[in-house]
Amino acid sequence: MSTHSPSHAEMQAAFAARDRAWDGRFVIGVVTTRVYCRPSCPARRPNPENTRFLLSGAEALDAGFRPCKRCRPDEVARDVQAVRQVIGILRETEGPVALARLARATGYSPSHLQRIFTRLTGLSPAAYGRALRDKRACNALAGTGAGSGAGSGSVTAAIYEAGFESPSRFYDSMQRRLGMTPSAWAKGGAGATIRWAVAASSLGPVLVAATEKGVCCLSFGEDRAELDRLFPNATLVEGDCAFAALVQEVVAAVDDPSREHAIPLDVQGTAFQERIWAELRKIPPGETRSYAELAAAAGYPRAVRAAGSANGANPVAVLIPCHRVIRADGSLGGYGFGPETKRELLAREGVQTKL
């Protein structure tokens, strides 16, 4: 779930579209009726000059508005708080957490909690917890130097520390997350169904596409050309309301590229590309690497140009942070979505680059 404050333009667009994905993130006060509503309220829309956008029900109450009896905006705010509480518990707990325990913590029934969590995040609590454990395990394994001579004991320790009950459970989880098979990727997504949508971000429109396993394409702009290039043989379907929750999580990662996220990915490349992408994900926010450093970290110190090409082939900008690779002299280097976008992403992480 996104935690950044929505802009006025985002709130206007969400209210006009009755976008349920924004429920709980702000409310709309109607000056003529002194009522405040959630963005998705089915009531007839008031004239723009009679609306006020407020960030919470408490702020609306302070301003003299009362909650709408039709859309019950305060119930949504409570749902959002419960979902955030569950995410906090999942982040703090290494192993699986029973739905009944999460329900007791929030005061909801298990079935209701499952329903609202899935609606607001796009994942069930169990799936969200698995994604967090997978991410912890992958990060821990990267730290062990797996594949570069580290002992198997360190790998096993990393798997247990990530919250898996056994190495076999971890490998089963990795298998479930494969998404498209390598042959499907090689054949332009043949046989795969990919949902996509274009959403507003503070860096302009972004196109987000995902299989049932995770995000497979993130590009800047409204043009679908990159998606069509990657997956000319896939079945492309415009995302529905359920997809909007994942899209907003991606938008939050774009708006604040330094924030931690557990967004599932479904990306594949050559063995060399995947090695480079793995190294990209190790670069902490606020730090950069040169192309030579990236190649050396991946174990191919002479393949600087190839590392640059693999960096540029990353299909999920920001989520795999290829913007953190710059030239050795401190200048930006290339970026598929333009130097200003790259400069701004780095600036948001506190990195200043040469002009």
Protein topology:
Elements (H helix, E strand, L loop, with lengths): L7 H10 L9 E4 L4 E3 L13 E4 L2 H6 L3 E2 L5 H20 L6 H8 L3 H12 L3 H20 L7 H10 L5 H10 L5 H5 L6 E9 L2 E7 L4 E6 L4 H6 L4 E4 L2 H15 L15 H10 L8 E2 H7 L6 H9 L12 E2 L12 H10 L7
Parallel strand pairs: 2-4, 5-8, 9-10
Antiparallel strand pairs: 1-2, 1-3, 5-6, 6-7
Helix pairs in contact: 3-5, 3-6, 5-11, 6-7, 13-14
Task: Pick out its properties.
single chain, 355 residues, alpha/beta, DNA Methylphosphotriester Repair Domain, Double Stranded RNA Binding Domain, four-stranded mixed β-sheet, 45% helix
CATH architecture of the largest domain: Orthogonal Bundle
From the spread of the alpha carbons, the general shape counts as: globular
The total strand number stands at: 10
Q: In angstroms, what separates the terminal alpha carbons? A: 35 Å
**How many domain units?**
4
Order of helices and strands: HEEEHEHHHHHHHEEEHEHHEHHEH
CATH class of the largest domain: Mainly Alpha
Number of helices: 15
Provide the low-confidence segments as ranges: 144-153
* Fraction of helical residues: 40-55%
Per CATH, what is the topology of the largest domain? Answer: Arc Repressor Mutant, subunit A
Q: Which percent range describes the beta-strand content?
A: 5-15%
CATH H level, superfamily name of the largest domain: Winged helix-like DNA-binding domain superfamily/Winged helix DNA-binding domain
Rg over alpha carbons: 22 Å
**Main beta sheet, described?**
4 strands, mixed
